[in-house]
Design a protein that fits this description.
CATH superfamily of the largest domain: HUPs
Helix content: 25-40%
CATH topology of the largest domain: Rossmann fold
Strand content: 25-35%
Shape: elongated
Radius of gyration: 21 Å
CATH class of the largest domain: Alpha Beta
Number of strands: 15
Distance between the termini: 74 Å
Length: 328
């Protein structure tokens, strides 16, 4: 009888940010329902918990998606050092597969580790299977209208998950054993940032998008960074949380932490006002659980007008500011 081959999996949980529970759900759901091995393989999963200075160690270790845990104490805003620390911890018995939750940090760490180790990288992964030394991943394509299968051959395979896995309902293991608890090396901690004269800004909290009862989402129809800032000011005056669409983030008009949709946050507000967003399927996934959707757009044939409960055909910035004046 041939002994089963072991697939070494490193599931990386970012507990240094504000979304540890969401990320833990995503990793657990994928490992239990989205990853399959061929009959001759067995997965051996180790959780790497990235722990920030203010995090409750015992609580986040309890969220880890595997019994065996390695704690890596990290610095904020330094994915370059975090990636180096993960690779160093794996030295000598490196993982075959690194799994990261979706989002900007997961995607960046996957790419950095693949570059450091000569592996391969893919983001937005929905399902994955291992057979004959090849990892085959399924992900969305063509604005989520189709799916495609992508094969990764160079190990380690480094993947970041599709945002839909954050809805998984899985309980973590009953017991956790911490085998490694390390900080970044002293020379790494004192290392300069990779660019000179960098100003580190604290990212806005993301938890408010998930829990908000009143949400305003600014789209490309805001026209510019200034337009988004005016919508943000109007939302603040009304006591609403602010989200943005992917085109707004791609234009650098707002932080990626504000993104709503498949590659951002999925929300469930009582009221959602969509200001200047056409309504792509990837975006609608992020707001479809809203109790009431109002859309403001200059295009009466935009897809969002067919999904909203109320529609105003006008300039999004002007309407939001007028609404803030009425409610303020």
């Amino acid at each position: 009888m041939t002994a089963a081959r072991t697939l070494r999996v490193a599931a990386v949980l970012d507990a240094a940010g504000t979304a540890a529970e969401r990320h833990a759900r995503a990793l657990l759901g994928f490992l239990r329902g989205g990853l399959t091995c061929d009959p001759g393989s067995a997965a051996e999963v180790t959780a790497h918990v990235l722990l920030g200075g203010g995090a409750d160690r015992d609580r986040v270790v309890g969220l880890a998606p595997a019994r065996d845990v390695r704690v890596i104490r990290t610095l904020p805003h330094r994915p370059d050092l975090v990636a180096a620390a993960i690779v160093a911890v794996e030295a000598g018995g490196g993982a075959d597969l690194y799994v990261f939750p979706g989002g900007p940090l997961g995607s960046e760490l996957a790419a950095r580790i693949a570059a450091r180790t000569g592996g391969s990288v893919l983001t937005g992964v929905q399902e994955a299977s291992v057979a004959a030394g090849v990892l085959t991943c399924r992900r969305a394509a063509y604005a989520n209208h189709l799916t495609m299968d992508v094969q990764l051959t160079s190990r380690p395979w480094c993947i970041a998950l599709d945002g839909a896995w954050t809805d998984a309902a899985c309980e973590p293991p009953d017991e956790h054993v911490v085998h490694v608890d390390v900080g970044l090396a002293e020379d790494a901690v004192s290392a300069p940032a990779p660019f000179h004269d960098v100003e580190h800004l604290e990212p806005p909290p993301t938890g408010d998008l998930e829990s908000a009862r009143f949400l305003v989402v600014a789209g490309r129809g805001a026209g510019s960074r200034v337009g988004v800032e005016r919508i943000a000011a109007a939302a603040a005056r009304m006591g609403a949380a602010l989200g943005v669409t992917r085109p707004v983030v791609m234009n650098a008009w707002a932080s990626p932490d504000r993104q709503v949709g498949v590659s951002g946050t999925r929300t469930a507000p009582a009221v959602c006002v969509v200001a200047g967003a056409s309504g792509s399927p990837a975006f609608l996934w992020g707001i479809e659980r809203a109790g009431f959707i109002a859309a403001v757009d200059t295009d009466d044939r935009a897809p969002i007008t067919g999904e909203a409960d109320a529609v105003v055909i006008d300039d999004a910035v002007a309407v939001l500011e007028a609404l803030a004046d009425l409610l303020g």
